[in-house]
# Entry
Amino acid sequence: MSKISIIAAIDRNRAIGFENKLLFWLPNDLKRFKQLTTANTILMGRKTFESLPKGALPNRRNIVLSTNKDFLCPDAELFTSIDEALQSCKADEHIYIIGGEGIYQQTIGIADELCLTEIDAIAENADAYFPEIYPNIWHEKSRDSQPIDEKHPCSYAFVDYVRR
# Structure
């Protein structure tokens, strides 16, 4: 069975985006995202794919979900359902779910772990949110807190959760 991880950056209200854009620019979060997902599979919804500035992310298998089977997503594979996409994956594939809100809601019930950047701030505007993280389902495995610095306008923590 493939390992399924959800990766996201969330604010104190679990907000993840506004108008299909990230809420905070945290270079270390982007580095962590690249480090974890490179050489693995990333699965995303159509809007998340459209938000990528250069299209499909390099050195990863890119899977896009869309109900429009004619949606063009160069250098990525298109599927119309999560089940169909997951069935295309090999048993040893590590799959990272990278958004957006609807995809997170549909996959949190099957994920093995959450790789979150918990941002110690509240976004001014948000229109997309991460699902509730229930402590009876998720156990905090590790937390690496980071302070404000010249490149990061707010403190944050890399927090990994595993399913109980």
In short: The longest strand covers residues 138-146.
